[in-house]
Amino acid sequence: MRHPGSTVALAGLFGMGLLLCTLSARPLQRVAELKTPPNPLGLKRSPYGEVIAMAMQGSIDTNFLISIYGTQTDRAGKPRPIQPPDQDKPLTGQLQSVLEEMRQGYEKRTNPVLASETLKRFLRRKAEDKLRLAYNLDPSHYANYNALHFFLAEHISTRPEMIPMAGSLAQETITYCMARQEDPQALLTASAAYGNLLQLMFQERADGTRDAGIHDMERCLAGLDHTISLYLALSDRWLETGEWNRLSGQRVEECQERILYISRMREIAAETLLRIKKGQVMQNSLKSGERSE
Amino acid sequence: MRLLRITLATIFQRKSWVVCAFLVLIFPFALPLISSATEKPLLVQPARVQAAWSMLWLCGLVWGLFTAAHEGEHNARSGLGEYFLTTGISRIRQLGQIWLALMAFIAPLTLAAALVCQFGARPANPAEQAWWWQLNLQYAALYLLVISPLLMLAIATASRYGSTCSFALCLLLALYGLYGVAYLDNMLRVEENPLLQAVLWTSPQYRFADLTQRMYYKNGALSADTFKLLCAYFCGLGAVLFSLSGACFKSRAS
Fold first, then answer.
1. Is A54–B185 a contact, with Cβ atoms under 8 angstroms apart?
2. What share of chain A is helix, strand, coil (3-state, %, to 5)?
3. Are A194 and A223 in contact (CB under 8 A)?
C-alpha cells in the first residue's frame, strides 16, 4: 500500500519538473551560442572524420561512371582495370585475387539496358551527397574538396541552386585550411581552392556573367602564391626535422605530385591574368582615345 | 525431433515473430509513404526494395540472433538439454534441432521479402524483368547462407557464455562483415598497411551478400561465375562457423 504522502511528493516533483522544462525550453531555442550544425559523435572536422573521409573515396566513385555514361565503361569502352595479384606472395596473392574477383563481380553492372537519364541523375545526386558528407568530415582533404568543386563548377550537380556556391565553398575551404598551417596537405588544399577561385573568375569573365575585377584576381593570385610559399617553407622544415616520415610513402608522393600541378596551374593563372590586364589597358586607352576625339 | 517441436512452439507462442512478419510484409509498402518517393513516383519501387531487404536484415540480425541466443541459453540453463541427453539426443543433434526451428521462421521471412520485391517492385522494362527474378533468388540464397551460420553460432555461444554476450558478439561480427570490412577495404586502397590487409583477408566478407544496392540501382543479376564463387565462399565460411558452433555448444550448464 503506497504512502499517500510519497504519491503527493512524486506528483509534485513531476509537476515541478514539467513546469521547469516547459518554461526553459523556448528561451533555450533562442540562445545563439548553442546553435551548432548537427554533428553526431562530433565526427565532422575531427581526426576520426578525416580518416572516414579518406575511406569514403572508394564508395563515391563506384557508381560515378554509370551516373555519367549509363554503363561502367567510359566512351572509349575501357573498363576499370583489375588489380593484378602480388606475384611474390603466392598464398596472400591467391587470397587477394579471390577477394578481388568477388569484389569485381559484385560491382559489375550486368543490366543490358543502359541507365536512364533519371537513374543517372539519381546516381549523380547520391555521389554528390556522399561527396558533400565526405567534404564536411574533412574540408582540408584535397581529393574530396576538388571532386565536390568539380561537381559544382562543371554543372554536374543535381542541385542547380548550389552551383553558385562553388566560390563560397572555396572560401570556406581556404579559411579552414589556413587555420591548419602545420599540415602540408591542408596548405595544398588551400592552394587548390585559390586556384579554383581564379578559374571561376576567369570563366565568369569569359562567359560575360560577372567581372570580378583585376584587383580581386590579383588578390587571389597573391593568396595562391602565399599558400605555395608556406607549403614550400613547411616542406623544407619537415625535410630537416624528418617529419615527412610520419606520413606514408603514398601521402608524400601525392604531396609531391600536387605541388607540381599547383605550381604549373599558378603559372598559367599568372599568364592569363597578365593577358587580361593587357586587354584592359588596351580597352582603357581606346576609350580615352575616343573621348579625346 | 521433439526438441525441434518444443523450440518451434516456444518461439511461436512468444509471438515476437509477428513483428518481423509485419516489418517484412507491411513496411515495404508503408515506409515509402514517409520518404521522398511521395514527391517522385519513380522512387517508390526502389524505396520498396530498400525497405523490404533492410527490414529482412534487421529481423535476421536483431530478432533472429536474439532469439537464437535466448534458445541456446535456455536449453543449457533450464536443464532441457540435459534431459534430452538422457533420452539419447546428442549435443550436436540438439544444436541442429534448435537451429532448424529458427530457420523455420527465417526462411519464410526471406521468401516474403523476395516475393515483395518480385511482385511489388519489378521494373517495367521487360528486358530488365528477365534478370529481376534471378537477382531476387540470388539475394535470398546469399542471405540464407550468411544468416544460418550466424544463428548457429549465436545458439552455441549462448549455451556457453550467456545470451547477452552471444547476441552482442554475433551482431558485432555481422555488422563488421557487412559494413566495417567495406570501409577497411576502401581505406586500404588509399593507404597500404600489411597488418590491416591481413585482417581484411581473414574478415568475413558479408558485404558481398548485401545486394540491396544492386537492386536499387538496377545493376543486373550477378554473373553465374561470381554467384558460384560467392556461394562457395559463404559455404566455406558457414562450414567454419558450424564447426566452431559444434565445438562450443553445451547441453548443460555445468
1. no
2. 75, 0, 25
3. yes
- Complex ipTM value: 0.73
Tell if the pTM clears 0.95, that is, is over it: no
- d(CA A54, CA A251) in angstroms, rounded, equals 12
Q: Burial level of A34, CB count in 10 A (0-12/13-18/19+)?
A: exposed
Contact A193, A145 (CB under 8 A): yes
- Among candidate residues B106, B108, B94, B13, the one with its CA nearest the CA of residue B63: B106
- Alpha-carbon distance B18 to B28, whole Å? 16
Among A106, A119, A123, most B C-beta atoms within 10 A, so best to mutate, is: A106
Shortest Cα–Cα distance, A79 to chain B (Å)? 15
Question: Which residues of chain B lie closer than 8 angstroms to A105, CB-CB?
Answer: 222-223, 225-227, 229-230
Q: Provide the Cα torsion A141, A143, A144, A149; round to 10°.
A: 120
- Cell digits of residue B217: 540501382
Asked if B223's CB is within 8 angstroms of A105's CB, the reply is yes
Chain A residues within an 8 Å CB radius of B220? 109-112
Spatial CA neighbour of A132 closest among A114, A150, A145, A122: A145
CB of B194 within 8 A of CB of B226?
A: no
Among the listed residues B146, B145, B166, the one whose alpha carbon sits nearest the alpha carbon of residue B155 = B166
Pick among A54, A61, A91, A110 to test the B interface (most B CBs inside 10 A): A110
CB contact at 8 A, B84 and B76: no
Is residue A212 within 8 A of residue A162, CB to CB? The reply is no
Per-residue pLDDT of chain B (254 residues; tens, 9 = 90+): 889 999 999 999 999 999 999 999 999 988 888 877 776 777 788 888 989 999 999 999 999 999 999 999 999 999 999 999 999 999 999 999 999 999 999 999 999 999 999 998 888 888 888 899 999 999 999 999 999 999 999 999 999 999 999 999 999 999 999 988 888 888 887 778 889 888 888 889 898 999 988 888 888 899 898 899 889 999 999 999 999 999 999 988 77
Cell of B59: 529481423
For residue A179, pLDDT over 70 is answered with yes
CA distance linking residue A250 with residue A145, whole number of Å: 19
Angle at A133 between CA A131 and CA A134, to 5 degrees: 60
Find the CB nearest B205 among A59, A99, A248. A99
CA distance B55 to A106: 22
A248/B201 touch (CB, cutoff 8 Å), yes or no: no
CB contact under 8 A, A103 and B42: no
Q: Is B219 close to A57, i.e. CB distance below 8 A?
A: no
